[in-house]
Design a protein that fits this description.
With about 290 residues, this protein is α/β, with parallel strands linked by helices. It is built from seven helices and twelve strands. The N terminus is likely disordered. Bound molecules: zinc ion.
């Protein structure tokens, strides 16, 4: 486009569309804001006692005879370690296994229940129905398909086993102290709301001192997916995000490692950036047209 053309009748419109596409769509090409809610999987990954450890074996790493670089590794991992999904079949007979869970049930509006102060005061804290009501008073009814996650501040302790399990005896679950879901809150969600995923930033949806895993059983029986050892919940809003739980598609799995991430972090920021782009483009085009 030459400078002359912007003085033609359709010049302003053409100029506006062109510059708008460069400036605004350029922002889109740079990508949408995403927060990773996942701990890295490595030899420090935390598993429940009794599981074998994560194993990473280098099969090949180096220059090949063909002159190109090549890397390939083998991994071995129990299903339930680090940031991972509990399929309903983990704690209920004849319920969905990992490969049977529809993808539409592995994402949804993020509902973050902040109990950090309560968990700091009491490591055996369990999310109550009243904590869910506090969230709803602030943000409205928990949306259908929600991914409801407890933020207890516990992910800061990961992957230190002593701090995460709240004990020096990290192989003895009877000594564990960390927060989770109260069975009444799990039951309330099952009976009164329509959620896809219920999870925690600790190693288990049931608190450390549980011996009967009631929250697990209640959620699994209702075919609701669990999510454990979630990270970075301080970096997303308590309401308004969209959370995706990209779990391995494991035939007959009772669970599996997942890459969990959040988008739609702040719609008002996106709107502001759109309106700023719009004003700059308009001003530039008026200048060019007049010139
Ligand atoms: Zn699990």
């Amino acid at each position: 486009m030459s400078w002359v053309s912007v003085t033609q009748p359709n010049g302003f419109l053409l100029c506006f569309v062109s510059v708008f596409m460069v400036v605004y769509l350029g922002n889109c090409v740079n990508g949408i804001p995403v927060v990773d809610l996942t701990h890295v999987q490595d030899s420090n990954t935390i598993f429940w006692p009794g599981n074998p450890q994560f194993n990473f074996t280098i099969l090949y790493r180096g220059l090949t005879d063909g002159g190109y670089w090549y890397e390939s590794n083998a991994i071995q991992t129990p299903e339930h370690g680090g940031t991972h999904v509990d399929a309903p079949s983990h704690f209920a007979k004849d319920k969905l296994r990992i490969d049977q869970i529809p993808m539409s049930k592995l994402c949804g509006p993020g509902v973050i229940i902040n109990v950090k102060e309560k968990a700091r005061a009491n490591p055996d804290y369990r999310v109550q129905v009243s904590d869910l009501k506090v969230w709803e008073d602030k943000y409205g009814r928990i949306p259908d398909g929600a991914v409801v996650l407890m933020n207890s501040g516990w992910s800061d302790k990961y992957p230190n086993k002593t701090l995460t399990f709240g004990t020096e005896s990290v192989n003895d679950p009877s000594t564990f102290h960390f927060p989770g879901w109260h069975e009444d809150a799990a039951d309330w969600l099952v009976k009164n709301r329509n959620v896809n995923v219920v999870g925690v930033d600790t190693p288990s949806n049931d608190y450390g001192q549980s011996t009967t895993f009631d929250a697990h059983v209640i959620l699994a029986t209702a075919n609701i997916n669990g999510l454990e050892n979630v990270a970075n919940l301080d970096n997303i809003p308590e309401a308004g995000s969209t959370i995706y739980v990209a779990v391995i598609n494991l035939q007959d799995g009772s669970g599996g490692p997942a890459r969990v991430f959040a988008t739609n972090l702040d719609n008002s920021v996106n709107a502001a950036s759109f309106s700023t782009s719009f004003k700059w483009v308009l001003a530039l085009c008026i200048l060019l047209t007049l010139g």
